[in-house]
Specification:
This protein has 481 residues and is an alpha/beta fold. The protein has one domain (14-478): Alpha-Beta Barrel (TIM Barrel), CATH 3.20.20. It is 38% helix and 14% strand. It has helices at residues 21-24, 58-61, 65-78, 90-93, 104-119, 136-139, 148-163, 184-188, 199-223, 245-267, 272-280, 289-297, 347-361, 390-408, 457-467, 475-478, and strands at residues 14-18, 83-87, 123-127, 170-172, 228-234, 238-240, 302-306, 311-313, 322-324, 329-331, 337-338, 344-345, 365-369, 379-381, 384-386, 413-418, 439-441, 453-455. An 8-stranded parallel barrel has the order 1-2-3-4-5-7-13-16, surrounded by 5 helices. It has a two-stranded parallel ribbon with strand order 6-8. A two-stranded antiparallel ribbon has the order 9-10. Helix 13 (347-361) runs parallel beside helix 14 (390-408). The longest helix has 25 residues, at 199-223. It is globular. It starts with 13 loop residues before the first strand and ends with a helix. This is Beta-glucosidase.
């Protein structure tokens, strides 16, 4: 029997990993860095905001990437990563956010980080704001509800665009910009619970970020026409729990909570369904004609998103099982299994997400976060410490196979940056115990540990996948005659 054609990903596909400054760097106040909104959430998204943060907390040191990045980048190169998504801490460059001059020590760190990645042949993707901005912008300005933050953000952004022109091509304006709807302090720095926040105030803050994102696209293209500037959302598709029309409509409405952001950033206008929502809920935003034109003329070059799981939607939620991700609680899917942290595992949902976004926008896509948080046990095998994380391999394999299927469907998928190359402090619960990495970091929830790095079984597996350009994902299929 004739051997099947080899399954591979497109040539020049970006196999990579993703990191966030606040979860990996540590050095919270070193070399002139200011405190950030991430520091003010020392125990995770759900805990009380601390301004200023008190005592020791895991993110203060994190996994000490700030001092250990040369070792880590060597490991990433050994894993054959082709892209690393990083974020640049605004407070490491402008400690208060409104400083007149940048902190050169902070810039020197990112100068060397980016240059080292380039020397190792690893493309850099930079997230300009990843759930951490200078805490002073909250305490003095009130966060993103104040339009002054647009100008301060642009001072930061233009500095980076000019400094790293010719070195960084791919940029993301805001991380998971839609998460503000569930975690307003995380997203826009409004320090009140959701039930205490006026909807007009919250959506005005969101509008300011959308304007800032469009201004960043405009400035980036003016500085370097080769820049590719994208948006980034957390995307968990909602399925109707049943074929009941009311459940189908509920799923449409839930999905629109994400599409609102991608519609504005990729299509350039506030969609009609949001206009109705604003009207029905008495939300009155200040949006100028100049801002409308700005949004229309400066749409993103590509769309990027995180994908961890899907949800179900039901018009009647009484008595139904609920699941919770980092910030969203929704109806559980009875057909899916769960991770150690109760997150449902749905690889096919990634194919659905990719097809949905590409059908809707016809723009290139990047999966910039995907992974599984789990309890890992460090053991010794043949004299080497490692983790036998077959569950992580199975998770990534199943999702990458579905990403390949989406490419065959016609989706223009440019890259996959796994969350994450090495263990970091989790954002939602601020723990080390919830591990995502292909590399184990010896640090515990109580702050103990040597910070030494150990390669997990998944490290070698991902390296083989990258070296084969995805062919290793289908080794059993392709060995059949």
């Amino acid at each position: 029997m004739k051997q099947r054609l080899q399954k591979q990903f497109p040539k020049n596909f970006f196999w990579g990993g993703a990191l966030a400054a606040s979860q990996v760097e540590g050095a919270a106040t070193a070399d002139g860095k200011g405190l950030t909104t991430a520091d003010a959430l020392p125990h995770g998204v759900f805990e009380k905001v601390e301004i200023p943060p008190q005592g020791d907390y895991l993110k203060k040191i994190a996994v000490d990437f700030y001092h250990r990045y040369p070792e880590d980048l060597s490991l990433f190169a050994e894993m054959k990563l082709k892209m690393l998504r990083i974020s640049i801490s605004w407070a490491r460059i402008f400690p208060n956010g409104d400083d007149e001059t940048p902190n050169e020590k902070g810039l020197a760190f990112y100068d060397d980080l980016i240059e080292t990645l380039r020397r190792k042949g690893i493309e850099v993707m930079v997230t300009l704001e990843h759930f951490e901005f200078p805490l002073h912008l909250v305490t003095h300005y009130g966060g993103w509800k104040n339009p002054k933050l647009i100008d301060l953000y642009m001072r930061f952004v233009k500095l980076l665009f000019k400094r790293y022109q010719g070195k960084v091509k791919y940029w993301l304006t805001f991380n998971e910009i839609n998460v503000t709807l569930e975690a307003p302090f995380n997203g826009v720095g409004i320090n009140r619970s959701l039930d205490q926040i006026d909807q007009t105030e919250m959506y005005q803050a969101i509008h300011h970020q959308l304007v800032a994102s469009a201004l960043a696209v405009k400035a980036g293209h003016e500085i370097d026409s080769n820049f590719m500037i994208g948006n980034m959302v957390a995307y968990s598709p909602y399925y109707p729990l049943t074929p009941k029309p009311e459940d189908v409509l509920e799923a449409i409405q839930e999905n629109r909570k994400t599409f609102f952001f991608t519609d504005v950033q990729a299509r350039g206008t506030y969609p009609a369904y949001m206009q109705r929502y604003f009207k029905d809920n008495g939300i009155n935003l200040k949006i100028t004609k100049a801002e409308q034109q700005l949004l229309q003329e400066n749409t993103v070059d590509f769309i990027s998103f995180s994908y961890y799981m899907s949800y179900c939607a039901s018009a009647n939620k009484e008595g139904l099982e609920k699941i919770r991700g980092n910030v969203i609680s929704a109806v559980a899917n009875p057909y899916l299994k769960k991770s150690d942290w109760g997150w449902q595992i749905d690889p096919v949902g990634l194919r659905i997400a990719l097809n949905t976004l590409y059908d809707r926008y016809q723009k290139p896509l990047f999966i910039v976060e995907n992974g599984i948080g789990a309890n890992d046990d460090l053991i010794e095998v043949a004299g080497q410490k490692t983790v036998q994380d077959d569950y992580r391999i199975a998770y990534h394999k199943a999702h990458l196979q579905q990403a390949w299927e989406a490419i065959q469907d016609g989706v223009d998928l440019r890259g996959y940056t796994a969350w994450t190359p090495l263990d970091i402090v989790s954002n939602g619960v601020a723990e080390m115990k919830k591990r995502y990495g292909f590399i184990y970091v010896d640090r515990n929830n109580d702050g103990t540990g040597t910070l030494k790095r150990y390669k997990k079984k998944s490290f070698y597996w991902y390296r083989d996948v990258i070296e084969s350009n995805g062919s290793a994902l289908f080794a059993e299929d392709q060995s059949a005659n």
